[in-house]
């Protein structure tokens, strides 16, 4: 029942880590973060320089890497959903409002 966890990404800060965690979890993946708040605990480093590792179960690595790759593409401009007209964030491949797939163009 234990997963083999695979580290797939080193995030530069907690915000990025949580953004990616949300992206992967939205796609149905299980995600763990490690390393968070190490700096704060030490009382020396500001939180924004703490590196956070993302981990996923080994069998979900390929899917997770694909999602992160599309995130890293800098595909950050929003896109307009054809289904409901909602403006969505760039990294998401589906409409958060109605669940329609992102148009290809
Ligand atoms: Zn929509």
TrEMBL record:
Protein origin, superkingdom: Bacteria
All copies of domain RanBP2-type, residue ranges: 79-98
Pfam families found in the cross-reference section: DUF2007, DUF7577
Protein name: RanBP2-type domain-containing protein
Metal-binding is among the record's keywords: yes
Keywords of the record: Metal-binding, Zinc, Zinc-finger
InterPro entries: DUF2007 (IPR018551), DUF7577 (IPR055999), Znf_RanBP2 (IPR001876)
Keyword Transcription regulation: no
GO molecular function terms attached to this record: zinc ion binding
